[in-house]
Write a structure and sequence with these properties.
Layout lengths: L1 E5 L4 E4 L11 E7 H6 L1 H12 L5 H8 L6 E4 L4 E6 L2 E6 L9 E6 L2 E6 L3 E6 L4 H15 L12 H14 L1 H19 L9 H33 L7 H74 L14 H22 L10
Parallel strand pairs: 3-9
Antiparallel strand pairs: 1-2, 1-3, 4-5, 5-8, 6-7, 8-9
Helix pairs in contact: 5-8, 6-8, 7-8, 8-9
Length: 358
């Protein structure tokens, strides 16, 4: 468990949880689920001293549940937000075919935020890069190395929104990977020279997109409830507090807009994949129709030839040309002219050939 003191001038990591809140700024307590479970009693005791309230048992269960979907809840002394982070976990799948596609698995581990007036408690999965990234970034901002580029968060809610926004923006790398993977699958689907047989990979990709869409919808609902809760907060009495409230609204709307962009892109990828599958079967049906048309034309050409050979194969002695030395050549010439004529006729009717005239 790591604890930090955040103020307008500095960002300091504390050796242990203090007995009382500092006179200025606020505290950020970051822990993993395992640490929360092991040190829950100590954390509840210091929260009682700091804010006069503890985490509700049901909320503690939510924070310890790694499979909980994104949601928002509140009490009179703190707000609770559970947000599932987006990350890419590529795994390679090789089924022995000439081209193996990378199946992009979606990691959606939950991160919990308990937002008090002057305390932020975050619960992360083990080895969570979000906590380490913000600890390092805020330490640089507090030391003055990046003061001009990044201002320290003014409140626990501000820090929470920055972390949530960072998790949503991490989808950009996942979006590129998913787009590249779907592009490869679509190219293989529409390739007329190769037979597509990577249907399990395509199904896994579509399932990943459906999972991502469900995750983003839960995230959007949670952030929308958070925005509605901000609107119901008591009116601020000072100009600075009003500006901080406006900044929270702006950051919240920005996070919501980023989630909307994620949803729009995922739905566009899903629609593109569905369209590619439909085009694949349409092209397959068109190719089958071409084959059947060619076989039908060949049958139509050879039917009169079979009629001629059948006519001369009848068991009668007084048939024309059967006793003539030139009869065979006359019959062959008639069949050749008839076959070529029918072939030219069907070709001009565009029943033969793969190229179409404009």
């Amino acid at each position: 468990m790591r604890s930090f003191h955040v103020s307008a001038e500095q960002f300091v990591e504390l050796r242990a949880l203090p007995d009382a809140l500092p006179p200025t700024g606020y505290l950020w307590v970051a822990c993993s689920r395992r640490e929360l479970e092991q040190e829950l009693a100590d954390l509840q005791a210091v929260l009682q001293r700091w804010s006069g309230g503890q985490l509700v048992d049901l909320h503690v269960s939510d924070l310890l549940n790694p499979q909980l979907p994104s949601n928002y809840d509140y009490t009179s002394w703190y707000d609770l937000l559970v947000f599932r982070r987006l990350a890419a976990s590529p795994t390679s799948r090789d089924d022995g075919s000439e081209s193996a596609f990378a199946v992009q698995a979606i990691d959606t581990s939950a991160v919990g935020f308990a937002v008090f007036d002057r305390v932020l408690v975050t619960v992360h999965p083990d080895n969570c890069g979000v906590r380490d990234y913000f600890a390092q970034r805020l330490a640089q901002a507090g030391s003055g190395e990046a003061r001009s580029a990044s201002r320290l968060p003014a409140s626990p809610a501000d820090l929470m929104l920055r972390m949530v926004n960072f998790m949503v923006d991490s989808y950009l790398e996942l979006r590129r990977a998913l787009t590249r993977q779907l592009g490869q699958l679509q190219t293989a689907l529409l390739d007329p020279h190769n037979r597509f047989d990577n249907w399990p990979v395509l199904l896994e990709s579509r399932n990943a997109l459906h999972l991502l869409e469900d995750t983003c919808e839960d995230q959007r609902a949670a952030i929308q409830e958070w925005i509605d809760a901000i609107a119901e907060w008591p009116a601020e009495t000072t100009a600075q507090a009003q500006r901080e409230r406006e900044l929270l609204n702006v950051r919240s709307r920005d996070v919501l807009e980023h989630i909307e962009r994620v949803l729009t892109h995922v739905r566009r990828l899903e629609q593109s994949a569905e369209t590619a599958v439909q085009m694949h079967f349409t092209a397959l049906g068109h190719r089958t129709n071409d084959i059947m048309r060619t076989l039908t034309v060949l049958t139509a050409i050879f039917m009169p030839l079979n009629l001629i050979t059948g006519f001369f194969g009848m068991n009668f002695d007084a048939l024309p040309l059967i006793h003539s030395s030139t009869g065979f050549w006359v019959a062959s010439g008639i069949m050749g002219v008839l076959g070529v004529g029918l072939g030219v006729f069907f070709w001009r009717k565009r029943y033969l050939g793969t190229h179409r005239r404009p």
